[in-house]
Amino acid sequence: MFLDKMEKFIDNLTPMDLMRSEKMTFVQLIIPAESAHRAISYLGELGLLQFRDLNADKSPFQRTFVNQVKRCAEMSRKLRFFKDQINKAGIMSSSHTVLQPDIDLEDLEIQLADHEHELIEMNSNSDKLRQSYNELLEFKIVLQKACGFLVSSHGRAIPDERELQENVYSNDGFVETASLLEQEIRPGPSNPSGLRFISGIICKSKLLRFERMLFRATRGNMLFNQAPADEQIMDPVSAEMIEKTVFVVFFSGEQARTKILKICEAFGANCYPVPEDISKQRQITREVSSRLTDLEATLDAGLRHRNKALASVGEHLSDWMNMVRREKAVYDTLNMLNFDVTKKCLVGEGWCPIIAKTQIQEALQRATFDSSSQVGIICHPMDAVESPPTYFRTNSFTSPYQEIVDAYGVARYQEANPAVYTTIIFPFLFAVMFGDWGHGICLLLGALILIARESKLSTQKLGSFMEMLFGGRYVLLLMSLFSIYCGLIYNEFFSVPFHIFGESAYRCRDNTCRDAHTIGLVKVRDPYPFGVDPKWRGSRSELAFLNSMKMKMSILLGVVHMNLGIILSYFNARFFGNTLDIRYQFVPQMIFLNSLFGYLSLLIVVKWCTGSQADLYHVMIYMFLSPTDNLGENQLFWGQRPLQIVLLLLALIAAPWMLFPKPFILKKLHTERFQGRAYGILNTSEMDLEEPDSARQHHHEEFNFSEVFVHQMIHAIEFILGSVSNTASYLRLWALSLAHSELSTVFYEKVLLLAWGYDNLIIRLLGLAVFAFATAFILLMMETLSAFLHALRLHWVEFQNKFYHGDGYKFKPFSFATLTDDDE
């Protein structure tokens, strides 16, 4: 009778949107070929249909629209090339996007090919000009620096013809300078016995190794002169400015010449011919300078033309990338459909929310009308074997809490969603461990800054840490508000208590307060109206009092939290019509947990209300060891001993209650159905009503009693042992709260107050800086992360394992809004 009334009351409750995932339906689409592209585009804009791949057995190259996908991929490559070139040139591309529902990529493909060809040609010409410019510049520097070395060795009478014959070019592309020198220099017969030289330029970083190698190769029979270049040379590959050094190597003999040239080639040193005649040097220098001026003008003109071309591409780059990205997504989706050549239509299947069927029908009708198709698109529901995907409608506030739950596991279809309760319980448990209203205000300011700049930050590309922080801005907001609330209860502001809600209920025994820490204080008025009395701070029993209060509070919160999880398992079982789970899991679990730890919570509350000095450890231990013994001074209320015996018996009964009945009942019902004596529908977690008859019959034939029994035994043992371990796990609320309070006290007393005790401004400022640093990086960052992770564990393990399966899969509809640059 009671259960019937409770079920009727629950039926009359208004359903919550976030409590259960959206009801889904499996639909089949029959789309004419002429309207397929437009229909998929409209569905992508709507973003409410998840297509199923009907060509999973085919490779990507065997699908119908593989050529279109390749074209889109090639255009994406060209667009990425343009983007890289624009970024290297430092040109800002336009972020304005103009989207069209029907996109013809033929003209765009031709236009992109033309732009790419033009840009590649300009880059090639620019590289050649830059290479020639660098060679002329190096030649000019070598002429200027090598002149001094050659003048000092003028008395050695090196013939011009021999000198010019020994100097070589290291780069075949240096055509212009070679023709210049041919007008001034005529090679003559060589004299192997004379003194020769090779001049050139090398990177400064290679100079020391280069000189050492020359010395070893010639066995010291050479003279090496060097001078740093006055100008840096641009590397055409990396576009970096490189420091170089001019060198002149004097040597004798053909063999030494060959070795030196090979070493120069190996080290990447560029060798240039330098005439010894000063008049020829001046003439060549003037011609090189003239050509450098001409090349600079040509390079500047080419750079302006290239930047102008890149700017024109950049104006439309964002639009083009969006177009190509969408087109590729459309063709990828079309490849998931079956193409019927005879009927000239595409057949697709997928999941959609029932509430979105009307919107999908309207989008398909609009696609038929816009494509001027004579045949409409057919969309009708079908039966599906697999379980539907899970879809929760969230907003910017509820989304981070849903992500916290999904990180553990996506909810099974229509399963109770823990995110409904996580929204409040998670930040509250965090605040229990982080309770300090000074630190809470700091977190609140950070959360308000993120929320105030929400519109600006949502459009920017943030780093991984900042993106995570911005995504959880509303989680941070509630955590800070609850931290302020718990901090007011603990009466801690950066570990300092305040008389916010009136005077303390205690005072010293005399005016000197010399016995405050030894004998204690005297109670003179009613208890402090809200939170911990500030006089507890610094008293001799402060730690014992706070430890006792926070430990008992942690147990109370843990028992309530676990009971909520078991109650949600009842709502799950009732929603799926699973009466076996209600009778043989929910009921014995509630009895077992509350017979032991529910009773402990009752004792804690009674002790707080009566002010009894009973030892709860003794009560709980001897409840198991000697349940019939007299409690004596540990008795908290009349009838406590018989109540303990009853509760202990109920806990002992609940253990086999969870283990034995359900497997035997499942076996009995399976046998009756298999033998044809009963045809009632058995809707349990092992046998799902959603499955077709063939699949259900397959399960019936493979029913394995030993497997079911072992599974139930594991579940029962896990709950019984977990009740003890999970309750103990909630003591982390007490431990972390104590650690946070003591750490804050240490920084306040041993850093700030200690520095303030000195009559020195520098020491005080230093102490304040250390205190601020420790507060910001240790208490507000490390402690926040620690409390966050512990609250996360309490939700994932202690709370969700009571009812949450988390073996579903997310609803991932085809949507243009979810496309990113990585999808290209």
TrEMBL record:
Q: Where in the cell is it found?
A: Membrane
Q: Which residues form a coiled coil?
A: 105-132
What highest taxon heads this organism's lineage?
A: Eukaryota
**In which broad location class does this protein mainly occur, judging by the first location in its UniProt entry?**
membrane
Q: Transmembrane segments in this chain: where?
A: 424-451, 472-490, 553-571, 591-608, 643-660, 761-782
Q: Which Pfam families match?
A: V_ATPase_I
Q: Which UniProt keywords apply?
A: Coiled coil, Hydrogen ion transport, Ion transport, Membrane, Transmembrane, Transmembrane helix, Transport
Q: How does it sit in the membrane?
A: Multi-pass membrane protein
Family the entry assigns: Belongs to the V-ATPase 116 kDa subunit family.
Which PANTHER family does its entry note?
A: V-TYPE PROTON ATPASE SUBUNIT A, VACUOLAR PROTON ATPASES
Report the function annotation for this chain: Essential component of the vacuolar proton pump (V-ATPase), a multimeric enzyme that catalyzes the translocation of protons across the membranes. Required for assembly and activity of the V-ATPase.
* Name of the protein in its database record: V-type proton ATPase subunit a
Q: Which organism is it from?
A: Stylosanthes scabra
